Task: inverse folding
């Protein structure tokens, strides 16, 4: 007879299989996808926190089936592959979009990004180039390879969790590594955010273990995947200063962190051979059509000035700047109360502020601040779990907006998944909910 933890693991695995099967079926499989999501999410919430389950086995069983699915909830992975092929063809990824490449991979990139230059740094470009050097224009092989990169990053996160959260590592592992939002979007979607967060996590672990130079190098590498990780350099400098004797440790730690970051940036950019165009392309995801609180407010305000082009454009820009101001206010408060908040939770809060008030918001962006916040603030686990649960299913498996029929199919799938979960009577150990 299956033990408590094994039942939960099996239910989550069944959910992942259903998600994969439904995604392969396309629109007719939408009910399967959302039934699988419900099973996976409920298994995660009920996941045993008393040790009868094996978390690494659970990771393999929950993530493994997703490797066979088509790209889930986004087609960004085709942009990564197209960029790797563009570099091989000598095209400047920071001046041209995938349309300049042509071919079967570029054709799979959503139309909105066809003429958009890459916003990613040289480490991301190195990975894309390495993957496409092996897989070429074979789309399925390329997607699988990018997923393996994401899964490898997730393994790195799991390995350093005990260093970042020594007092409650099992709970943090469950909240972060086994999180359906992480599995579905970072592994299923093959997003390079997984690599960014993985390098950031290892860098923070090195900083906590008093290896500041290694920490600064790793966090810089994360920044050269996606720019928001640069906030981790502030955390490295603060931790470095706290362990530095003598006068003005903060100044010396800041200069040291900056020097390591600059040196690593120069070396990695030279190795990648893509130049510094990524700095100018950092605003690539920014458009008034993005979904985010500031973008929505900008569009609503612009509608008021529908007959005034200047006023409409200005209102959108003003809301963007309001988002920047709100983020700076959060960062200022975190810095002011840093001794009370703590370095890791402070970093997590600022990263979540960047997500909440930024010009573009995707469900998986929340993962940026998930680990440092969970590691430093055990009391935040339940709220973070609720947030991740809400965000996991908010977009369709193909990444496009839903019509009424698709919404009804998704709701039906969730209800069926919840019913199956109830029928198998998954055991709920005392205080098992992530917290």
Result:
């Amino acid at each position: 007879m299956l033990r408590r933890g094994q039942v939960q693991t099996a239910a989550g695995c069944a959910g992942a299989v259903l998600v994969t099967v439904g995604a392969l079926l396309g629109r007719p499989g939408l009910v399967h996808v959302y039934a699988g999501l419900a099973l996976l999410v409920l298994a995660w919430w009920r996941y045993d926190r008393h040790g009868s389950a094996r978390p690494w086995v659970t990771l393999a069983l929950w993530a493994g089936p997703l490797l066979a699915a088509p790209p889930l909830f986004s087609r960004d992975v085709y942009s990564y592959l197209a960029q790797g092929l563009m570099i091989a063809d000598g095209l400047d990824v920071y001046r041209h979009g995938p349309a300049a490449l042509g071919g079967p991979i570029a054709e799979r990139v959503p139309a909105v990004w066809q003429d958009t230059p890459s916003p990613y740094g040289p480490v991301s470009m190195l990975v894309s180039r390495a993957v496409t050097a092996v897989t070429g224009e074979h789309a399925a092989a390329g997607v699988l390879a990018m997923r393996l990169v994401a899964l490898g990053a997730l393994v790195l996160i799991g390995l350093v969790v005990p260093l970042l959260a020594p007092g409650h590592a099992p709970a943090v592992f469950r909240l972060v590594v086994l999180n359906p939002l992480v599995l579905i979007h970072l592994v299923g979607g093959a997003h390079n955010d997984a690599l960014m967060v993985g390098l950031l996590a290892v860098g923070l672990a090195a900083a906590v273990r008093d290896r500041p130079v290694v920490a600064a190098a790793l966090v810089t590498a994360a920044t050269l995947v996606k720019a928001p990780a640069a906030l981790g350099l502030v955390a490295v400098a603060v931790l470095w200063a706290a362990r530095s004797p003598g006068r003005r440790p903060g100044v010396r730690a800041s200069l040291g962190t900056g020097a390591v970051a600059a040196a690593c940036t120069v070396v990695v950019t030279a190795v990648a051979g893509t130049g510094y165009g990524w700095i100018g392309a950092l605003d690539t995801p920014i458009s008034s059509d993005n979904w985010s609180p500031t973008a929505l407010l900008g569009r609503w305000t612009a509608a008021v000035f529908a007959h005034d082009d200047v006023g409409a454009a200005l209102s959108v820009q003003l809301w963007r700047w309001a988002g920047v101001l709100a983020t700076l206010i959060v960062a200022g408060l975190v810095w002011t109360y840093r001794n009370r908040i703590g370095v890791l939770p402070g970093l997590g809060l600022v990263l979540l502020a960047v997500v909440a008030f930024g010009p573009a918001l995707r469900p998986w962006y929340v993962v940026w601040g998930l680990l440092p916040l969970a590691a430093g603030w055990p009391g935040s686990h339940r709220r973070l779990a609720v947030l991740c649960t809400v965000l996991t299913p908010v977009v369709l498996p193909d990444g496009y907006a839903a019509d009424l029929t698709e919404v009804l199919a998704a709701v039906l799938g969730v209800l069926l998944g919840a019913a199956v979960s109830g029928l198998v009577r998954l055991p709920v150990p005392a205080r098992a909910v992530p917290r």
About this structure: The chain has three domains: 1-61+395-435, 74-108+118-274, 291-360. Residues 202 and 333 are 26 Å apart (CA to CA).
